[in-house]
């Protein structure tokens, strides 16, 4: 009798875990998927599309001014940007444009393009990329496919390796 009760409880726990896992939203798009195109404005008001960079490797970084790990990875991103060839670009998508992004960028000495998105609009780019944590970085190959996704702070060494490993 006790064995049947224990087996039934165990089975119910397994079913509950499976249901929770199935309902849990996935964090980010998967590698191998075509990167969704988008159009955003830079801090200076210039419109930029991902498709503008077709044929180039793209490091697409989602970040916010209040995010500690985002702040910590910015110097590595700037160092990486300064060493890039013409076939690679960084696009850093800021998710809190209501804050003083320009002051943040000036303080950090950032020279690569900063694009402005918002978590509060229906068609936000970060929602299309299913960004659930910051920073989140996608490495998009020259054919427009996601070759790697990195959730959390990405080091300079990882940036270099991910770009070299891409087509």
What string gives the helices and strands in order? HEEEHEHEHEEH
What is the number of beta strands?
7
| Tertiary shape | globular
Strand-pairing-aware structural class: alpha/beta
What summary fits the major beta sheet? Answer: 7 strands, mixed
Q: What is the tally of helical segments? A: 5
Strand order of the largest sheet: 2-1-5-4-3-6-7
Residue fraction in strands: 15-25%
Uncertain spans? 20-25
C-alpha-based Rg, rounded: 20 Å
* Helix content percent band: 25-40%
Q: Mean pLDDT across all residues, rounded?
A: 87
| N-C termini distance | 61 Å
Question: What would your notes on this structure say?
Answer:
With 167 residues, the protein is an alpha/beta fold. The protein is 35% helix and 21% strand. It has helices at residues 2-23, 68-82, 101-108, 125-128, 156-165; strands spanning 39-42, 47-49, 57-63, 88-94, 114-116, 136-140, 146-151. It has a 7-stranded mixed beta sheet, with helices on one face.
Which helices and strands, and how do they pair?
Layout: H1 2-23, E1 39-42, E2 47-49, E3 57-63, H2 68-82, E4 88-94, H3 101-108, E5 114-116, H4 125-128, E6 136-140, E7 146-151, H5 156-165
Parallel strand pairs: 3-4, 4-5
Antiparallel strand pairs: 1-2, 1-5, 3-6, 6-7
Please provide a brief summary of the model.
The protein has 167 residues and is α/β, with parallel strands linked by helices. The protein has helices at 2-23, 68-82, 101-108, 125-128, 156-165, and strands spanning 39-42, 47-49, 57-63, 88-94, 114-116, 136-140, 146-151. The chain has a seven-stranded mixed beta sheet with strand order 2-1-5-4-3-6-7, with helices on one face.
């Amino acid at each position: 009798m006790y064995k049947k009760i224990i087996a039934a409880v165990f089975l119910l726990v397994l079913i509950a875990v499976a249901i929770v896992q199935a309902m849990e939203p996935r964090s980010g798009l998967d590698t191998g998927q075509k990167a969704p195109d988008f159009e955003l404005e830079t801090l200076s008001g210039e419109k930029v599309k991902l498709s503008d960079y077709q044929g180039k490797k793209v490091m697409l970084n989602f970040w916010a001014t209040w995010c500690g790990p985002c702040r910590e990875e910015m110097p590595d991103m700037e160092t990486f940007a300064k060493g890039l060839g013409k076939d690679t670009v960084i696009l850093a998508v800021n998710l809190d444009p209501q804050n003083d992004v320009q002051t943040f960028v000036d303080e950090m000495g950032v020279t690569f393009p900063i694009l402005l998105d918002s978590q509060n609009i229906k068609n936000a780019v970060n929602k299309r990329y299913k960004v659930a944590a910051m920073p989140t970085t996608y490495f998009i190959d020259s054919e427009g496919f996601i070759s790697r996704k990195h959730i959390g702070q990405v080091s300079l060494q990882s940036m270099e390796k991910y770009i070299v490993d891409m087509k």
